[in-house]
Specification:
Layout lengths: L1 E6 L17 E6 L2 H61 L10
Length: 103
């Protein structure tokens, strides 16, 4: 436990403890805030490290999804081009006014 030396000030608005006069020094215990502050600091550091890990994992997943989306967009574009090409070939191979074979 820590102790603090305190002088009772003359102009203080606080009441002077019984048995003390103005200007007299007292020794009073200081609450053990260091232990609780250190525990809170450790807890905050732990939470921060978990948040950093979660952020890195999320970033990796996001990067993977972006790469997959890029591949899918390229595949869609390629398939769309093939469909357009097949559609053009089909139109050019059939005469416009020819009857189907089942008639």
């Amino acid at each position: 436990m820590y102790y603090r030396l305190r002088t009772v000030a003359k102009k203080a608005r606080l009441a002077v403890p019984i048995g003390l006069s103005w200007g007299q020094r007292t020794v009073e215990p200081v609450p053990d805030r260091d232990a609780s502050a250190e525990a809170r600091l450790i807890e905050l550091e732990s939470k921060l490290s978990y948040q950093e890990m979660a952020l890195l994992e999320t970033s990796k997943v996001l990067a993977g999804q972006e790469a997959r989306i890029a591949r899918l967009e390229a595949t869609i574009s390629s398939l769309s081009d093939k469909i357009k090409e097949l559609s053009r070939e089909e139109r050019s191979s059939l005469p416009a006014n020819e009857r189907p074979p089942h008639y």
